[in-house]
Amino acid sequence: MQKALSVTSLNEQIKSLLESTFLHVYIEGEVSRVTYHNSGHLYFTIKDENSSISCVMFRGNNAKMKFRLEEGMSVFIHGSISVYIPRGSYQLNCVSIEPSGSGALALAYEQLKKRLEDMGYFSVEKKKKIPKFIKKIALVTSETSAALQDMIRVANKRWPLLSIVVVDTVVQGESSSFSIVNGIKKADLLEVDVIVVARGGGSIEDLWGFNEERVAHAIFEAKTPVVSAVGHEIDFVISDFVADLRAPTPSAAMEMILPDKNEFLIWIDEKMDEFKRTFLGHLAKKEHSLSNLEKEFQRYSFEHKFHNLNKDIEFLKKSFNLKLTQILDLKRESIKSLEDELDFSFKNHIVKKETSLNSLLNSLKSRNPVLGLNDYFAQTVKDGKKVKLSELKNGDVFELQSKESSLKAEVL
Question: Packing angle between helix 261-300 and helix 302-367, nearest 10 degrees?
């Protein structure tokens, strides 16, 4: 009678048989039930239309994966069959996994890009502004690279005032992402104005360190503005999208962020001319204002008031003199008119009086009885004085005088 095997013995024989028979397998299938465990192991199921098999990828191999497995993804798997004796189950122990239809690196790139974009790492609103005038810069790159020499050459040509700090960094290979992260963190503590993460051109594998998620986190969390200058113009890496500025090449980064000293000197000349024009214009305005204030001051000063009063007095004097002259002229004319009128009236009056007198004389002559008797009349004179006849007394001696003769006589 055949001896019975224990369950464990049977499972051990099955394990030995399967693992030795299927030591290297290469299969294609569709991924489902993906689980990333906290331990770092990856569990999933690979299936086709008719069957499925459980798969595991342990932490060591999983850490080398460039992309993440997703439900429904078609993949190629290199691995071996392993048996878990306590449960009597077998599974595919995965060594490497490649996506079907596209390369692992390309898929990993697109997956990480989408994930970071969904997290807001590419948001324009979160990008820091590059200073216009940079005094100090940190270059996170290999100190033996040609890219570093190109950047220094361009910097010295464009902006000699720049202070450059080189943070020596491994920019290629499996450990490059850790070195790049450490370089960014170190540069962020140097109190520089800008950090430039740079590397020359290469294959996608050469540039892969700049596509790692840890590098994206370091750039996003840096307090200093970061410029990504990796590869050639056609190369795009994850750091380009996360950085505050993407430059097509390392030397182009220097040209983009540093001012041209010649252009700046021209700008200074233009600003000096503008300042001169503005200053002279401002000075002219102030001189005009000062002139107006001076005129205003003079207008309200005592001297100006005295001068105006003096002018008013002179004007009044002239007006008075003119008025007085006019009045005097009018009075003179009036006096002359009165004089002429008076003279005329006087002469007229004299003429009238003379006429009246002559008329009276003529009338007198015509009425004087003596006039007709001149030859028969004489005047009585006593003691050399004319006397009336009635005044003579008896015995008075007097004279009778006529035109032609005189005669002494005595009153009897």
Answer: 30
3-class secondary structure per residue, the chain:
CCCCCCHHHHHHHHHHHHHHHCCCEEEEEEEEEEEECCCCCEEEEEECCCCEEEEEECHHHHCCCCCCCCCCCEEEEEEEEEEECCCCEEEEEEEEEEECCCCHHHHHHHHHHHHHHHCCCCCHHHCCCCCCCCCEEEEEECCCCHHHHHHHHHHHHHCCCCEEEEEECCCCCCCHHHHHHHHHHHHCCCCCCEEEEEECCCCCCCCHHHHCHHHHHHHHHCCCCEEEEECCCCCCCHHHHHCCEECCCHHHHHHHHCCCHHHHHHHHHHHHHHHHHHHHHHHHHHHHHHHHHHHHHHHHCHHHHHHHHHHHHHHHHHHHHHHHHHHHHHHHHHHHHHHHHHHHHHHHHHHHHHHHHHHHHHHHHHHCCCHHHHHHCCEEEECCEECCHHHCCCCCEEEEECCCCEEEEECC
Residue pLDDT, tens place only, 102-145: 566 777 778 888 888 889 999 999 999 999 889 999 999 999 99
pLDDT, average across residues 192-212: 89
Domains of the chain: 7-101 (2.40.50.140), 111-123+131-259 (3.40.50.2300), 371-410 (no CATH)
Write the pLDDT tens digit of every residue in 1-58: 577 888 888 888 888 888 788 888 998 888 888 899 998 899 999 988 888 899 999 9
Closest CA to 53 of 23, 24, 74, 33: 33
**Mean pLDDT computed over every residue of the chain:** 86
Highest mean pLDDT among 3-17, 172-186, 335-349: 172-186
pTM value surpassing 0.70: no
Q: How confident is the model at residue 163 (pLDDT cuts 50, 70, 90)?
A: very high
